[in-house]
Amino acid sequence: xxxxxxxxxxxxxxxxxxxxxxxxxxxxxxxxxxxxxxxxxxxxxxxxxxxxxxxxxxxxxxxxxxxxxxxxxxxxxxxxxxxxxxxxxxxxxxxxxxxxxxxxxxxxxxxxxxxxxxxxxxxxxxxxxxxxxxxxxxxxxxxxxxxx
Length: 148
Fold this sequence. Notes:
The protein is α+β, with helices and mostly antiparallel strands. The protein has helices spanning 2-28, 103-108, 133-146, and strands at 38-45, 56-62, 65-71, 80-86, 94-101. Strand 2 (56-62) and strand 3 (65-71) form a beta hairpin.
């Protein structure tokens, strides 16, 4: 009876782990649907590159939710970057745009938040940073096409 109970617990743990892993992979990679309702916010890189997990730790908020995890790229620990996400369905994915470091711009335009998270999401036209909007849009489309 004890072995049967252990087998059930181990089976449930394996199934739970698989569901979690699939969910993380399913949400993380941006899909073409992200282009329909794209919004932008600020994400913070919270660690140095982790060779074991193959990426940097990050955090950002969207639609009153918080997202953290790891992403590969050319980031600097403690810096903040533009994040593109689907504002109506996070399952369409998100991406942290390593070419758009907004750390200095946040201070310059007094957009700094005491908690270091940014609850507001902007449309492409309303992004308050001095980047060429067509460059941002190009980077988002290029990233999405690289996953196809």
